Amino acid sequence: MLKRKRNNRRSLPKARHLRLPALDWRRIGLTLSGVAVTALALAALGWLLDQPIQRVIVTGRLQRVSALDVEQVVRANLKGAGLVSVNLEQIGAGLRALPWVDGAAVQRSWPRGLKIEILEQIAVARWDETGLVNARGQLFVSEARFIPPELAQLAGPNGSQAEVTARYLATQGRLTELGLRLVALELDARGAWVLTLDNGVQVRLGRQQVDERFERFMAVAAKLVSQRAADIAYVDLRYGNGFAVGWKGGGHLARAPGQGAHGVG
Questions:
Q1: What is the pTM of this model?
Q2: How far apart are the C-alpha atoms of 142 and 127, rounded to whole Å?
Q3: Is the peptide bond between 257 and the residue preceding it cis, with omega within 30 degrees of 0?
Q4: Confidence of residue 90 (pLDDT cuts 50, 70, 90)
Q5: Are residues 108 and 136 in the same domain?
Q6: Which of 20, 85, 97, 147 fits a 20 to 30 Å CA distance from 112?
Q7: Whole-number Å distance between alpha carbons of 241 and 261
Q8: What tens digit of pLDDT does each residue of 211-229 get?
Q9: Residue 65 domain-assigned?
Q10: Among residues 77, 102, 120, which one ends one of the domains?
Q11: Are the C-beta atoms of residues 27 and 87 closer than 8 Å to each other?
């Protein structure tokens, strides 16, 4: 009698069937419907608020900037946008690029307008022949069609506008105390400073110890210049401890007592 061979193969474990939790399709549907309704409501609200811009209010003490210039910048940057979709920063950047505009702030003005505040540049001096600089020494107009005649003329190497303007403002304030006025200030390529007063007298400060030399002029030479401006061509302070006066008509130099014989630059 034949014996049946045993089946040594292990029986595989029965596969387990995972049971997913039942989904509440009704609740999911209500949630999605609520989200869709909210999105549609926001879109509708945005559409209602994004109305065409019909008026532009411009404020500020405008003397050099015209309303037409402002309007042209606004129109060029609107590009069909409404009050909500309009790019305010882009309009502001376009306005700040205009000559004579120092700052510009753009705000929405409901229901269909924009409010623009313009801050104009204030010219404190002329740069070279046709340029204008503000109190920060920024050359904001290089070819001015009109230059106020009372502005002093500044000059210097490229990029020196801020340095020259700062010295001009500090120097002019001191000279005003003595009844003098600065009409020109130049920084030459060698770094030497030359002042020209409204009485025609030139003050040469040179390159070194400029602040100390100016103080020496204020303390000693300024009174002489005020009294005898008609006779003086220049005052040279490029000396160690004194100054020299150049007289008009080819007169001799008059050196202050105690002054060194040679200039120091």
A1: 0.74
A2: 8
A3: no
A4: very high
A5: no
A6: 97
A7: 10
A8: 999 999 999 999 999 999 9
A9: yes
A10: 120
A11: no
